[in-house]
Amino acid sequence: MTLVSITLLFYCCCYYNFFLSCCSYVQLRKYYYINQNMSWGDAREYCRTHYTDLATIESDNDINGLQSGFSYEKAWIGLWDDPSSWKWSLGSHPNSWRWSSIGEPGRTKGGWYDISCERNHSFVCYTVFHHVNTIKSWYSAQEYCRSHYTDLATIENAMENDMIFNDTQRLYFWIGLSRVPWTWSNRSPVSFTNWQTGQPDNQNSTQFCAAELSDHKWTDEDCSTRMVFICHKNNKYVN
User: What parts of the sequence cross the membrane (predicted)?
Assistant: First the structure.
């Protein structure tokens, strides 16, 4: 498996009581090249089981990141013909400029072309994390993530842990881990941890939520502490 991450910064503003209020969030879209040969349908099932879905590509930045991060001749992405129109695996419609040429799409590097879904190829999966640059308590952050995305971030391995931290400028932030016992916000079991030495210590018997620090290590904190946080956008299937 090969991993590349692409970071996008978004701003949103609105007027409230005659004042302009703005906030920002960073979207971290992580692509995983899976060097296993599968049909398109099996590849989608694999991606939905282990990540979010087969790769959705939204911009030139995504394409450039994939070209610089991976080396492959052919690989499935999440685009399919239903057959009324081309759609991404999660249901959104692509922009036509991404095809390499009119008619039978071209076979230039990074270009797309259509082939039988039954053929076996390697493939690209992706996941999406959002760094929300608004400070909240752990439970308020959880509520925000569940309302706007899927949940607070679940971190399943060291590679994800490092990539998530490398794409934020904050010294520490909430992740989706809380106790008792330690469980991810989405109720999935904890198979990977990266606690700082001496942590978790439940100081003063008030520290029941986990945050990530500047050294990529985790610490337990009082859940009422306000800090920025990371949401995870999971797969929402559209058939």
Answer: 6-28
Other CB atoms within a 10 A radius of the CB of residue 151 amount to 18
Q: Which CATH architecture has domain 137-233?
A: Roll (3.10)
Domain at 2-126: CATH code: 3.10.100.10
| Sequence ranges of the domains in the chain | 2-126, 137-233
Q: Exposed (0-12), middle (13-18) or buried (19+): which is 179, by Cβ within 10 Å?
A: middle
Distance of CA 11 to the CA centre of its chain: 18
Please report the pLDDT score of residue 235 as a whole number.
55
The pLDDT-based confidence of 93 (bands split at 50, 70, 90) is low
pTM over 0.85: no
